[in-house]
Amino acid sequence: MKKRIKPILLILLIIVTIFTGCKIERPDDVAEDKNSTTQVENTVKDSDSTKTKEDIKNTDDTKKDDDTAKNETAKAETSKDNKDNKDNKDNKGNKDNKAANSNDGGKKAASSGKSNSKQSTAEKSKEQLIADANKHRQSGTKDKYLTDPTPEGMPKPIEWQGAKIDKSKVRYCTLSVDCLTILDNMKDFNKNKMSVLPKDGIIYKERRVMFYEGESVFDVLNREMKKNRIHMEFSMTPIYNSNYIEGIHNLYEFDCGRYSGWMYKVNGWYPNYGCSRYRLKDGDVINWRYTCDLGRDVGCTWMSETLDD
After folding, report:
1. What is the domain range of residue 43?
2. Phi-psi region of 24 (alpha: psi -120 to 50; beta: other; left: phi over 0)
3. Per-residue pLDDT band at 75 (split at 50, 70, 90)
4. Would 103 be classed as within a structural domain?
5. Residues in contact with 158: Cβ distance below 8 Å, sequence separation at least 6, in sequence order
6. Quick one: 118 and 166 in the same domain?
7. Predicted local distance difference test score (pLDDT) of residue 20
8. Does pLDDT of 58 surpass 60?
9. Tally of domains in the chain
10. Are residues 173 and 281 part of one domain?
């Protein structure tokens, strides 16, 4: 019975297979199919992996290209900014330089104008003085150094350029220096000079001093002040051809009013010319005095008369 069932089952199986299209596979075929399927899947996986790698590589390349482009763009913008900044600095520098040059030019022009103004004033003053001198010379009232005629019996001025000093011949004179008039005019005195004002008004007490034949009043005063370490300041005044005494013992002109300053007299007379032009004689008495009223307070009248004229 069993032998009959097997063939019948086999026949039925064949029939079913035909009608259903199913394939009867042996175990070996199934194994081969599985291997084939696995190979296909591996191939697909390898393809997908390769594709993924290529995509990643392409993405990386694209990103690198983008980064490179961005860097180049940034560099270009930076270069442009630097150039713009440089241009701005150059323009600013040029403007500043122009402004500075303009200011310098203005200052130079102002300085030049001021200098020219001073120069023209000085030239005008000098020309005026020369004109006045020529006028007085022509009229016979003054010499070329604007000196009025010397009173009769008084020493005439001698120009120091032609003076001959003989140091082998020693002579003597008397010299003194005082500022007594300041003590009587303290209301007008410069209070900043109180420390240099002698309490008794005597700067150089009257004494007998030597000089060489041919020397002037200025020569004696200058030597004695240096010898006794007493301050003295003077300046040469070419228009009058004489040294002008500006200050003694740190007391200057205008320290005690608008008409104050130093004057000298010899043998009781106030010469009407500078101390460099007065040649001494043996036995002369020289007094240097500080005036607060253009000589009137020390006994000189010709100077105030000259001012009034």
Report:
1. 25-125
2. beta
3. low
4. yes
5. 277, 278, 279
6. no
7. 60
8. no
9. 2
10. yes
Closest CA to 267 of 174, 151, 147: 174
Give the E-state strand segments of the chain in sequence order.
Answer: 166-178, 202-213, 232-237, 242-248, 251-252, 261-266, 285-291
| pLDDT tens column, 4-17 | 666 677 777 777 66
What does the alpha-carbon distance between residue 176 and residue 274 come to, in Å, rounded to a whole number? Answer: 18
Q: Give the C-alpha distances (Å, rounded to integers) separating 225 from 24, 155, 197, 218.
A: 152, 25, 16, 11
Handedness of CA 142, 148, 151, 153 (dihedral sign): negative
Structure tokens at 112: 């030049």
Average pLDDT score over residue span 24-31: 45
Q: Are 281 and 167 within one domain?
A: yes
104 and 173 co-located in one domain: no
Distance CA 236, CA 126 (A): 15
Residue 45 predicted with pLDDT over 60: no
In a domain, 130, yes or no: no
Scanning the structure block, which residue is given the tokens 């763009």?
A: 73
Q: Return the residue matching tokens 């041919």.
A: 214
**Cα–Cα distance for residue pair 65/67, rounded to 1 Å:** 5
Instruction: Kindly report, residue by residue over 175-194, the tens digit of the pLDDT.
Output: 999 999 999 999 999 999 99
Is residue 278 in a domain? Answer: yes
Average pLDDT, the chain: 74
Q: What does the DSSP 8-state code read for residue 266? A: E
Per-residue model confidence (pLDDT) at position 130? 54
Would you say 209 and 194 are in contact if contact means Cβ atoms under 8 Å apart?
no
pLDDT of residue 231: 98
DSSP string, 163-232: ---EEEEEEEEEEEEE-HHHHT-GGGS-GGGGGGS-TTSEEEEEEEEEEEET-BHHHHHHHHHHHTT--E
**Within-domain flag for 10:** no
